[in-house]
């Protein structure tokens, strides 16, 4: 049948007889048995010693096909070993000449399943498969699929669209994985989005697959970077920036110098990677990073676009912001102003560069964003004054109270603070990290004081997934406060619910939080929240699913009428009722 025809495709071109020839011989002959014998002799294994052995196998009922198949498999293994050996021996030109000759001879059999692995093996070892052969492979879906990645790279490097089709599902998967972590039902202060070390993240499936697809091919690496830039521009999704850094560092781990030495961001990214691992930028590394930024030469400014993308990676921003908060606390203790601290100024410079990545790549104007003086002279000192307020309040609490009575915690916030959070991106980012910091310290007073400033922030940063993911994690430390009506009203009515209806993601994060803490929330408040958070027709699947989970949990908590009357709990285990055996 047609299947048979495919199996022996290409044999005739090589002058090897196939089934069709046998059919023809038998149709035109007078003594079929003699003809078959002659065909076997002409096309069998040509080894004199075998002539006597074959009848012996016949006696044992071993079909000739089985015998030929085992000989064939043995030979194919030997041939594959030999091809791999040729690829490593002798002078370079000679060995490739041998392989090219072999490819020329065997390529017509590439459709034969039994021979295909040999042809594929030859191509895999050729650094440059002839263009004509690549075109034939590309035109045939099955052949393309069966190709080794070494051959596919040669096809991809001249076919950006085809390479894009291969890479695209991986990039989608990557973004989805990131979002799954941000929206995960496990809420914890210890295990959050930023807990995984850079080394561990680079072991992820997508990064590993992309690394494998690129190999040492600079052209393919550049294509992937171009895809990431384009997608970042199109979607503003910062996870593409993370992937940009992870991919470079994955190639760094494998010591692929062919690529690392030509990526001008390599050393900067390597140094920053060490800071991300420590979640802190120490002085020595700060100097090093500054050296790279100051070393950008005239005419090479374009590298700033790449550096800004590396700094826009949320893991980098997280590290820079945490370091900034730590520096501010140190400055309070040293009685130093922000403008007198070169380390702090460098952190702000890198935050600006990272936060300005989208605008820079979009406008193609490669220069560092101007730092707003007021950020340094007004906003940061204001944050430092909040730290001082906390110290003062804590000391006051410890002093013996005189007639004056206890000093209340400052409840108002400077209007300038709210304005900065609305109008200045860097101020907003640092402000949000300061709020995460006080929440982690279980500082309820400071949290409630600053919370109102979060309702309107620069480009709604306070309602972004990364901030809400971290905030919900840190709020688990204030779990006991959820029993208080006033705390819940400030947090839910004053903050979360102001955005729930217009921002699906906020709706999801509130539901995540309640799934985790519902047992701590005052019952009356819980009931009103359940009403307020009911999904609408417009709500997506994720919100409906979370809401159903919450409703189920709350149903389980309601005491049934029987339980209310019955005071002593039964200590005895209930007898188990045997269930009918399942079929």
Automatic annotation (TrEMBL):
Residues 557-583 are annotated as: Disordered. GO terms for cellular component: NELF complex. GO terms for biological process: negative regulation of transcription elongation by RNA polymerase II. Signal peptide: none annotated. PANTHER family: NEGATIVE ELONGATION FACTOR B, NEGATIVE ELONGATION FACTOR COMPLEX MEMBER B. This is NELFB factor. The gene is Nelfb.
């Amino acid at each position: 049948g047609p299947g048979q025809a495919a199996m022996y495709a290409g044999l005739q071109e090589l002058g090897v007889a196939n089934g069709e020839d046998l059919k023809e011989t038998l149709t035109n002959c007078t003594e079929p048995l003699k003809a078959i014998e002659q065909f076997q002799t002409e096309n069998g294994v040509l080894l004199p010693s075998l002539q006597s052995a074959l009848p012996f196998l016949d006696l044992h009922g071993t079909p000739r096909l089985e015998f030929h198949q085992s000989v064939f498999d043995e030979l194919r293994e030997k041939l594959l070993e030999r091809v791999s050996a040729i690829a490593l021996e002798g002078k370079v030109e000679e060995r490739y000449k041998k392989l090219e000759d072999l490819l020329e001879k065997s390529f017509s059999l590439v459709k034969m399943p039994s021979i295909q692995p040999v042809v594929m093996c030859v191509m895999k070892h050729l650094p440059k498969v002839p263009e004509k052969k690549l075109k034939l492979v590309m035109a045939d879906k099955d052949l393309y699929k069966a190709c080794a990645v070494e051959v596919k790279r040669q096809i991809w490097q001249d076919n950006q669209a085809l390479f894009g089709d291969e890479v695209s599902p991986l990039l989608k998967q990557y973004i989805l994985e990131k979002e799954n972590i941000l929206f995960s039902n496990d809420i914890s202060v210890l295990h959050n989005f930023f807990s995984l070390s850079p080394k561990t993240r680079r072991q992820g499936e997508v990064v590993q697959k992309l690394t494998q697809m690129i190999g040492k091919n600079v052209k393919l690496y550049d294509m992937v970077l171009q895809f990431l830039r384009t997608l970042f521009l199109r979607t503003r999704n910062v996870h593409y920036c993370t992937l940009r850094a992870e991919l470079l560092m994955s190639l760094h781990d494998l010591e692929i110098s062919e690529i690392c030495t030509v990526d001008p961001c390599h050393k900067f990214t390597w140094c920053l990677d060490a800071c991300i691992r420590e979640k802190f930028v120490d002085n020595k590394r700060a100097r090093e990073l500054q050296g790279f930024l100051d070393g950008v030469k005239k005419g090479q400014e374009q590298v700033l676009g790449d550096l800004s993308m590396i700094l826009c990676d949320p893991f980098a921003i997280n590290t820079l912001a945490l370091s900034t908060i730590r520096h501010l606390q140190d400055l309070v203790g040293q009685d130093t102003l922000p403008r007198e601290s070169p380390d702090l100024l460098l952190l702000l410079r890198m935050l600006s560069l990272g936060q300005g990545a989208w605008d820079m790549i979009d406008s193609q104007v490669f220069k560092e964003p101007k730092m707003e003086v007021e950020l340094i002279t007004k906003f940061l000192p204001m944050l430092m004054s909040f730290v001082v307020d906390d110290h003062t309040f804590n000391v006051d609490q410890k002093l013996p109270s005189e007639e004056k009575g206890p000093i209340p915690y400052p409840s108002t916030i400077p209007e300038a603070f709210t304005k900065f959070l609305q109008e200045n991106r860097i101020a907003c980012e640092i402000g949000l990290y300061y709020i995460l910091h006080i929440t982690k310290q279980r500082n309820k007073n400071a949290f409630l004081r600053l919370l109102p400033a979060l309702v309107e922030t620069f480009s709604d940063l306070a309602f972004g997934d990364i901030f809400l993911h971290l905030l919900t994690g840190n709020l688990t430390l204030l779990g006991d406060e959820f029993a208080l009506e006033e705390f819940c009203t400030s947090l839910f009515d004053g903050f979360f619910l102001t955005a729930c209806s217009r921002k699906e993601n906020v709706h999801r994060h509130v539901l995540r939080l309640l799934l985790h803490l519902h047992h701590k929330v005052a019952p009356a408040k819980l009931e009103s929240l359940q009403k307020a958070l009911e999904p609408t027709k417009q709500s997506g699947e994720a919100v409906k699913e979370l809401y159903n989970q919450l409703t189920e949990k709350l149903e389980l908590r309601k005491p049934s009428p029987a339980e209310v009357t019955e005071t002593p709990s039964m200590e005895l285990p209930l007898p188990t009722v045997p269930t009918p055996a399942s079929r």
